[in-house]
Design a protein that fits this description.
single chain; 309 residues; mainly alpha; 75% helix; 0% strand
């Protein structure tokens, strides 16, 4: 079988990288321009009226902290394979985010991160990314369930608890069942192979990241003059993130999904729909679009022949 000439391979890789970046920016542009609920002139006016440079930088700092903690999480987990620098972890996280923006539930991130490693380590990298995202989802479920209970959705909480218990019982009795060489018991064994110190740090960083982005949401409500008790607002934010994260979606639709769920919950608290939509949009711009723009740089600089860990 003939191998692809070096120049042709370079051109093919460049074309794929270019398509990823163009696709990412197209999906962002399409979502912004096609959102009928958002009056961009009003949005710009409101942002100028409600925020000063200091306020904007303060809110932006939350986004930087949010993504930095995710980078530290990834660096910590990859240490199980081989130590990498914060710079290398940043390149992998932001580049993979860009690659995964138009895939369901960010699945493209798994493949994106794997490309930065040798082929024989692909399965380990995908597994570590599953652990990285898994702890964030578990924390979202825990805080979200507490939030639902606090704001009076006790029946929902009972349903969630029963579902988790049912899933746990099913998992226990089927842990030895093997499907294509994989089983729950084997998965647990793989998880236990990772040092406990790495797991503890992963949980700590995941918790800090959750607190950062949930309180960024809270601060934005304060900026837009929403006056509600702290526990009521932060519990509603936790509930919104939990339910929105449970729905299948694309990264570029993130603010549309979270915005729809947020309108339902915050509407019951008497918050104007347009304020909720504006805040959800700002969160999306700061925490998804901005990192994708930076990640596009790393995607374009990616080389297959680079030395990989």
């Amino acid at each position: 079988m003939k191998s692809i000439p070096h120049k042709a391979k370079q051109f093919l890789v460049f074309t794929i990288k270019l398509l990823i970046v163009i696709g990412a920016f197209y999906f962002i542009y399409h979502q912004i321009s096609s959102n009928q609920k958002l009056d961009w002139n009003k949005f710009q006016t409101l942002v100028v009226e409600k925020t000063s440079l200091i306020t904007f930088l303060f809110v932006l700092l939350f986004s930087v902290a949010n993504r930095y903690l995710e980078i530290l999480k990834w660096q910590n987990l990859v240490n199980f394979i081989k130590p990498i620098s914060v710079g290398e972890a940043s390149k992998q996280v932001l580049g993979a985010l860009t690659a995964g923006i138009f895939t369901p539930n960010g699945l493209g991130e798994y493949a994106g991160k794997a490309l930065f490693f040798k082929k024989e380590k692909t399965k380990k990298v995908i597994f570590l990314n599953l652990i990285c995202n898994g702890i964030q989802m578990i924390l979202t479920v825990i805080f979200g369930t507490i939030g639902l209970l606090f704001i009076g959705y006790g029946l929902w909480v009972i349903g969630i608890v029963l579902f988790v218990l049912g899933f746990g019982i099913l998992a226990f009795f089927s842990k030895n069942i093997t499907i294509k060489g994989y089983s729950i018991q084997k998965l647990l064994h793989k998880i236990n192979e990772i040092p406990k110190a790495i797991h503890r740090k992963n949980i700590l960083l995941g918790t800090l990241r959750y607190l950062v982005f949930s309180h960024q949401y809270y601060v934005l409500f304060l900026v837009f003059d929403v006056d509600l008790p702290y526990l009521t607002l932060i519990s509603s934010i936790a509930a919104v993130y939990f339910l929105a994260s449970s729905l299948p979606s694309f990264q570029f639709l993130d603010f549309a999904v979270k915005g729809s769920v947020a309108v339902f919950f915050f509407g019951k608290l008497g918050i104007n729909e347009w304020i909720v939509i504006f805040i959800s949009t700002l969160m999306w711009l700061l925490n998804i679009v901005l990192p994708v723009i930076i990640g596009s740089y790393f995607v374009m600089r990616f080389k297959l022949n680079d030395k990989k860990p």
